[in-house]
UniProtKB/TrEMBL annotation:
A GO CC annotation given for this chain: membrane
Pfam families linked: HATPase_c (PF02518), HisKA_3 (PF07730), Sensor (PF13796)
Top-level enzyme category: transferase
Stretches assigned to the Histidine kinase/HSP90-like ATPase domain: 328-418
Name of the featured protein: histidine kinase
């Protein structure tokens, strides 16, 4: 084990020295970058230039910090997951991220630390390697110095001949090399550990990233679930339902061709025919509750318009620019509108109802308002509990306002960012 360690030492010294010597100019560059960031903030007063420039400067600082983080991890032989680096859409969102994101403040603290520690550490490494290598180069050239100002080694010992040049040069080079051999790897590892610690995501950031990952994961699952429901609905509609229709038709034809005195056979055919028709009705109901076929045929806008037209009371529909929505969100929105319209028709005593769907900042807003008597009570099975469950399955929110005397307003927000 000792032999193996001795075999690794030269490599460790070289890697540590390279890490420190590379960190010296990058720390100087970071020192220059800090005033530029301040200029970026101040430039907001110049036609709002900083609103665009500063977020991108902070993004550049994030990439710069991540590059240093990767170097530190490689030196220590550890694995680190890359932090997110990107800008959201919109100038306001970009500025808000640059100013309020905890990771941005972390990058700024790292930059100050990099300047404060990277430059001294790099200078120490430069001095150590420079003393060792420079002595080897300069000692044989002692004769180029004048007698009044001879070459001095070991701090203040003049070189007067080849003997003192080689002897003192060997001692100084060995001393500088020994110090560098011992200091460089340890100093580099200490700096690298400090870099990783400074850029380690906080518990708050890790939790936020985990929530984001889970949100994306669940959105993918919901999309896959919606696609699977559409496939099952299509298979049932085109397969099982079509076969039931064909069987019912054949049974009907068979009943018509039987003589009047068929007796028990006619009764059996009648029961089989009626059973097939009842099975078709139940299958249609199942298909509609799984994924309404009208969503596939007309989309959410057409489906909401159609369900409002058959609501049993005058319904006004207002649709904003909805764009492409995940299948699960479309299905939930359709059922929420349908249930709300049913509630209004059965319980509210309303003369009119208004349905409004809009999309803003990655959320679908559904508003159903009627002019009825109000006083909606969820405990009496008015369907609001079902609406809440559908919204909760997608991390949505439901607000119900139904004072006595009316009106009743149901507002649902569903996340729909894809």
């Amino acid at each position: 084990m000792g032999a193996a360690r001795r075999g690794r030492e030269p490599g460790q010294v070289w890697r540590g020295g390279r890490y420190l010597l590379t960190g010296l100019p990058t720390a100087m560059a970071t020192m220059v970058a800090l005033p530029l960031l301040a200029v970026g903030v101040l430039s907001t007063a110049v036609g709002g230039l900083g609103l665009v420039a500063f977020p991108r400067m902070m993004l550049g600082l994030r990439w710069w910090a991540e590059w240093h983080r990767g170097r530190a991890a490689a030196l220590l032989g550890v694995q680190v997951s890359a932090r997110r680096a990107g800008l959201p859409k919109g100038v306001r969102a970009q500025w808000r991220q640059a100013v309020r994101d905890p990771a941005s403040r972390q990058d700024l603290r790292w930059a100050l630390r990099q300047v404060a520690t990277g430059i001294p550490a790099g200078l120490i490494a430069l001095a150590g390697f420079g003393a060792a290598v420079g002595t080897v180069i300069v000692a044989p050239l002692w004769w180029l110095f004048t007698e009044g100002e001879p070459l001095q080694l070991l701090g203040a010992v003049p070189v007067t001949g080849w003997g003192s040049a080689l002897g003192l040069g060997a001692v100084q080079a060995a001393a500088a090399g020994a110090v560098t051999w011992w200091v460089a790897p340890r100093l580099a590892r200490g700096h690298a550990r400090g870099c990783l610690a400074a850029l380690e995501p906080s518990a708050e950031v890790q939790l936020a990233e985990r929530v984001g990952e889970l949100t994306e994961s669940r959105a993918g699952v919901m999309d896959a679930h919606g696609a699977e429901l559409r496939r099952i609905e299509r298979d049932l509609h085109d397969g099982a339902q079509a076969r039931l229709v064909a069987i019912a038709m054949r049974l009907g034809v068979a009943r018509e061709t039987l003589p009047d005195d068929a007796g028990a056979l006619a009764k059996l055919l009648q029961e089989a025919h009626e059973g097939a028709e009842e099975a078709m009705t139940e299958l249609r109901d199942v298909i509609r509750t799984m994924y309404p076929p009208i969503l596939t045929d007309r989309g959410l806008e057409g489906a909401v318009t159609a369900v409002a037209a058959g609501a049993g009371l005058p319904a006004e529909v207002e649709l904003g620019e909805l764009g492409r929505l995940p299948a699960a969100v479309e299905a939930a929105a359709y059922f929420i509108v349908a249930e709300s319209l049913t509630n209004a028709a059965k319980h509210s005593g309303a003369a009119r109802v208004r349905v409004r769907l809009t999309r803003h900042d990655g959320r679908l807003l559904i508003e159903i308002t009627d002019d009825g008597t109000g006083g909606a009570d969820e405990s009496r099975g008015t369907g609001i509990i079902g609406i809440r469950r559908r919204a909760a399955a997608l991390d949505g929110t439901v607000r119900v306002s139904s004072p006595a005397g009316g009106p009743t307003a149901v507002t649902v927000e569903l996340p729909c960012a894809s």
